[in-house]
Amino acid sequence: MDQDSSQTDLFHKVIPLPLEEEIKHSYLDYAMSVIVGRALPDARDGLKPVQRRVLYAMLELGLRHNQAFKKSARVVGETMGKYHPHGDAAIYETMARLSQDFSLRYPLVDGQGNFGSIDGDPPAAMRYTEARLHSLGEEMLADIDEETVNWGPNFDESLQEPLVLPSRVPNLLVNGSTGIAVGMATNMPPHNLREVIDATCALLEDPQIELGELMALLPGPDFPTGGVILGRDGIVDAYKTGRGKVIVRGCADIEDGRRGRKAIVITEIPYMVNKTSLIETIAKGAQSGHLDGITDLRDESNREGIRVVLELHRDADPNLVLRQLYSRTQLQSTFGVINLALVDGRPRVLTLHQILQVFLDHRRAVVRRRTEHRLRKAEERAHIVEGLVRALDLIDQVIALIRSASDPASAKAALVETLGFSEVQAQAILDMRLQRLTGLERSKLEEELAQLLQDIERYRSILANPSILDGVVRGELQEIRAAYEDDRRTRIEDAVEDVSAEDLIPESEIVVVLSRDGFLRRMPLQDYRCQSRGGKGVKGASTRGEDEIALVTVTTTHRTLYLFTSRGRVFAIRGFTLPEPKTGKGKHVSTFVSLEEGERVVTLRDSRLDGARFVFFVTQRGVAKRLPVTELDGINRAGRRILGLAPEDTIARVRFTGGEDELLLTTAQGQTLRVPEGEFRPQGRTAHGVRGVRLDEGDLVVGCDVIEPGRQVLFISERGIGKRTPYDEFTAHHRGGGGVRAMKLVDRTGDLVGAWGVREDDELVVISAKGRMVRLLAGEISSLGRAATGYKVVRLDEGDEVADVSIIRCADLEEE
């Protein structure tokens, strides 16, 4: 071939490409390499590739927790030479961080020597430090030699490395992760192992468990440096959407210092805050005047923990200085949660449910593959042992065949053809030592065979029954919990700001109104003067179009308000968080709580319990249920399901009872049933309840109240007609009955709106569908028998009707 033709061939091998396209594809390849191969953790074991390779290399070196330490340089060299050719500095930094108890909530590497400090000091050189696996790190690698995970080639395809670790520990949540990739980043906080495992087991038991119930078990992050998390909203957002902002504050106490002065002592700092940097910031702030009253600053920290002492001027306000520290230094910081991890090789932002579910699916796969491996090994061994036992039964024939054979191959063939042994069994017989012919050895073989058959049966049951497999997963998680659990270090408080909004708002009585379109607002109770019976009232809630008032209750700005929904869930919000607009509807309820499609709030209830032991529910269809009041503990805006309902039914009334009360159930058509509370046995959150009252066709339950001495029952109808009736007019019956007539209803009355137990000095807030509100004394309403119709309580405009009534207890007002 001449020179011209070779140049022509070379020219045809050059492929012209647009520079923009080439840069785009090359950068995407680089970005995916960083995302998948370096920066992001796998959602199953919570490890990045370099972390996984370090732990596996330590296992290969035999550096178990009960073995001697070895030089860190040995581990780094093993990892770099076999699995991670990206430089010794990165590998050593990774191993050092895995051993730092201020970086990881539960270290996976046990380090000996200087591996850095919370002051930002770097680790000593790898030739000076030593390391071995921590016992929890070994749990990450447990069963890796039993075909539990997939393997892939290392960088030069000379070795195989695990693509994920079996990980008995839910490490992604337990230790968290941080990493910056290309165009994305992960920042996951650590958690308490006991709480994570409890939540994992709860999800294993009930795959449909709600977020509120999970958060009762796993309330939030648990940082290795302790501190205080301010507010739960950021935690709820992070668990619900995968992103959220968690405000973390260090712990500081005010102590008596020298010469009668006060001192602020910092004992815990926020996670990932450098203590030296914090002290420098405080010193600069004291010099510049941003921090008032600090005269001396000492770092008295030691092995026992952090202790930074700030001595103050004699006339300094320590609480003011503390607030300044929180607002102007890193003593309070924000941890931005981004739950980003690799799922099936792709980056995904995960909710709490998804993180736990990915780990559970991984553990199920590991247990299944391990069981299949053990089953195969047990069956292979059982096959051999069966052959050995049978050979002992035919020992004379076996010996004769072997002695007559010319070589081992002939002996093996004779055993297979003449006595029916398999080739594996025949080889095992030829390899058998003569000592196996003793009676003791024979019994050992029989015992081994019995144990193998028992193991095979157990392995097959695990593989055949998903519930048994889940039981194995649960049992192993409980073993980890028992071995490594400890107490929570980070406290979680409801306050969000340096000075909480609650402290800035005086406690006052408010009227909370929910419109039929779902808008919430609050109004001062004092705006509604007490009026005489028959008054027309004042304009209490601005409505637009057909948006009429649905619910109203009286509470205070500092109390919690329970919102019970039509789907049997309950949410909790604070009174001061509700808007108080001068005009307009307020804010939609979905701003405060997350409702499902078609779900609506049916009852508002002040959280003041006054010694109540149970929550009593009655639905519009007459179904009743008694729930222990402790089931409401810890409820927040994430919500919790507390009643199972039929699809067409909704909650009508919610009452708090003492355990031995009597209840009066009232229907829209004027029937009333008095029934002892004991007729309804307490039930759990998932129960559907029992029949409370028998209803006629078209009738609905509109009232339920606790009978108390000194009260009468107040009935009010849609047209504003009402009366009070003594409880003695109603005799007690068993649950499920139809009750007796409570009030004579005619065209001018309309159906009953509800029934409430009142004293004469109690006050009523009556609100109409068009937003008119009247406040009056209960004693002004006539006391009549149950057969009477009653008198006009509130005068309504044409086309208006009573929407709801809220009772203001005189005892409550006196106490407040």
**What is the CATH topology of the largest domain?**
Neuraminidase
Percent helix among the residues? 25-40%
Name the CATH superfamily classification of the largest domain.
Answer: DNA gyrase/topoisomerase IV, subunit A, C-terminal
Low-confidence residue ranges: 540-547, 811-816
Give the overall shape.
globular
Family: Belongs to the type II topoisomerase GyrA/ParC subunit family.
Subunit structure: Heterotetramer, composed of two GyrA and two GyrB chains. In the heterotetramer, GyrA contains the active site tyrosine that forms a transient covalent intermediate with DNA, while GyrB binds cofactors and catalyzes ATP hydrolysis.
EC number: 5.6.2.2
InterPro entries: GyrA (IPR005743), GyrA/parC_rep (IPR006691), Gyrase/topoIV_suA_C (IPR035516), Topo_IIA-like_dom_sf (IPR013760), Topo_IIA_A/C_ab (IPR013758), Topo_IIA_A_a_sf (IPR013757), Topo_IIA_dom_A (IPR002205), Type_II_DNA_Topoisomerases (IPR050220)
Description:
It is a single chain. This protein is α+β, with helices and mostly antiparallel strands. It has 4 domains: 47-166, Topoisomerase II, domain 5 (Alpha-Beta Complex); 251-330, Gyrase A, domain 2 (2-Layer Sandwich); 359-484, Orthogonal Bundle (Topoisomerase, domain 3); 501-815, DNA gyrase/topoisomerase IV, subunit A, C-terminal (Neuraminidase), CATH 2.120.10.90. The chain contains 20 helices and 42 strands. Strands 20, 21, 39, 40 and 42 form a 5-stranded mixed β-sheet that branches. The longest helix is centred in the middle third of the chain and has 42 residues, at 352-393.
